[in-house]
C-alpha cells in the first residue's frame, strides 16, 4: 500500500509543477555567452539599420525584460546589420528623437492597470504638468509613434509590449490587437499557419512545444487585419474562464501599417525560451521584416482562413 501511494505521488508531482511558472534567474554574462553561440548569422545588409529597444514598464514587471533586451541586442549586433540604442525614457518618442530609428522594439512595456497608458504613467512624476497637459503630451507622444511607423518605419512588439497603450484603439490598430487576458502558464503546442512562410522557416513544419502564458486578444485583433504566423488550438489550452467561440488564437503575426511594417510575437514570457536557436532565428527574421529586408506575404488574412 505504501509503495502504491509513493507511485501515485510521483505521478502527481509533474502535474503540480506543470501549472507553475518557470523560475526566474538573473541575467549573467555566462548565460549571454551561451545564447551568443546559438544565435543566427546575419544577411549582410549594405547599410546598417538603426534600432531602438524600448524597455520601460509601469505596470506588471516581466522578470525577463532585461533578458529580452540583452538577447535582442545580441542577435541584432551579431548579425552586423544593426546599430542598437537602449532606452527606458519616453523622450525617445519626441519627433526630434524618434526619426533617428528605422525600427523600434517594444520590450514587455506593460502599463499600469488603472489607465493602460504607459506614456501617461511615465508623465505622472512631472509635477510641472497639469492633468490636461499630461493627457495632451501623452497623446502627442503616442501619435508620434503611430506616425513614425505609418511613414514607412518598423515596429517589433515582444510579448507584453502590446499592453503599452492597451486602451488606445489607434495603438491597437497599429499593433494588430490589444491584450485581453491569459490563462496560467502551460505547455502550448505552437503551430505554423503556413510552414512555407519565410519568417517561420526555422521551425519544424509541425510546430513546437512552448511553455508560456497563452495570450488572448481583443479590440483590433477581432478584425484579423494581419497575416498570422503562429497559432494555438483552444481545445488544447487549460483555462478556468469560459472558452471563446473561436477555435484558434494567433500568437504571432505581421502586418502593414500605412507604409510601415509591424511584427508581433507573444512568445515568449520566459527567458528560458531564448535558449532555442529556432526562436532566435524567428526573432531575427522579424527584425529583418520590419526594416524591409525580407519581402514576404503580409496581406491581411481572410476571415474564412
Describe this structure in words.
- This protein is an alpha/beta fold.
- A nine-stranded mixed β-sheet has the order 2-1-3-4-11-10-9-6-7.
- It contains eight helices and eleven strands.
- The protein has a single domain, classed as 3-Layer(aba) Sandwich (Rossmann fold).
- It is 30% helix and 21% strand.
- Mean pLDDT is 91; it is low at 1-19.
In short:
This protein is of the alpha/beta class and about 300 residues long. It contains 8 helices and 11 strands. The protein is about 30% helix and about 20% strand.
Which descriptors would you attach to this protein?
globular, 8 helices, alpha/beta, single chain, Rossmann fold, disordered N terminus, 11 strands, 305 residues, two-stranded antiparallel sheet, 9-stranded mixed sheet
| Reported CATH architecture | 3-Layer(aba) Sandwich
Which class do the helix and strand fractions yield? Answer: alpha/beta
What's the overall average pLDDT, rounded? 91
Radius of gyration: 20 Å
What is the CATH fold-level name?
A: Rossmann fold
Amino acid at each position: 500500500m505504501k509503495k502504491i501511494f509513493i507511485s501515485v505521488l510521483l505521478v502527481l508531482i509533474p502535474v503540480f509543477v506543470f501549472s507553475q511558472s518557470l523560475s526566474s534567474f538573473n541575467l549573467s554574462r555566462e548565460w549571454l555567452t551561451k545564447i551568443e553561440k546559438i544565435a543566427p548569422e546575419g544577411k549582410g545588409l549594405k547599410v546598417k539599420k538603426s534600432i531602438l529597444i524600448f524597455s520601460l514598464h509601469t505596470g506588471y514587471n516581466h522578470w525577463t525584460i532585461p533578458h529580452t533586451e540583452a538577447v535582442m541586442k545580441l542577435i541584432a549586433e551579431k548579425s552586423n546589420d544593426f546599430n542598437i540604442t537602449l532606452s527606458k525614457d519616453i523622450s525617445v518618442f519626441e519627433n526630434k528623437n524618434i526619426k533617428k530609428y528605422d525600427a523600434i522594439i517594444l520590450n514587455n512595456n506593460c502599463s499600469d492597470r488603472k489607465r493602460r497608458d504607459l506614456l501617461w504613467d511615465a508623465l505622472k512624476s512631472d509635477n510641472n504638468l497639469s492633468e490636461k497637459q499630461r493627457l495632451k503630451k501623452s497623446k502627442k507622444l503616442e501619435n508620434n509613434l503611430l506616425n513614425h511607423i505609418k511613414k514607412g518605419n518598423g515596429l517589433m512588439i515582444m510579448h507584453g509590449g502590446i499592453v503599452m497603450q492597451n486602451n488606445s484603439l489607434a495603438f491597437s490598430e497599429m499593433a494588430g490587437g490589444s491584450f485581453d487576458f491569459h490563462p496560467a502558464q502551460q505547455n502550448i503546442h505552437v503551430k505554423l499557419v503556413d510552414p512555407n512562410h519565410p519568417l517561420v522557416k526555422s521551425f519544424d513544419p509541425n510546430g513546437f512545444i512552448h511553455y508560456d502564458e497563452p495570450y488572448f486578444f481583443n479590440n483590433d485583433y477581432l478584425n484579423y487585419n494581419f497575416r498570422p504566423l503562429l497559432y494555438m488550438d483552444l481545445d488544447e489550452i487549460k483555462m478556468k474562464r469560459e472558452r471563446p467561440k473561436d477555435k484558434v488564437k494567433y500568437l504571432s503575426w505581421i502586418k502593414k501599417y500605412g507604409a510601415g511594417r509591424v511584427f508581433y510575437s507573444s512568445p515568449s514570457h520566459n527567458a528560458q525560451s531564448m535558449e532555442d536557436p529556432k526562436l532566435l532565428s524567428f526573432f531575427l527574421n522579424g527584425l529583418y521584416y520590419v526594416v524591409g529586408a525580407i519581402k514576404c506575404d503580409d496581406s491581411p488574412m481572410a476571415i474564412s482562413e
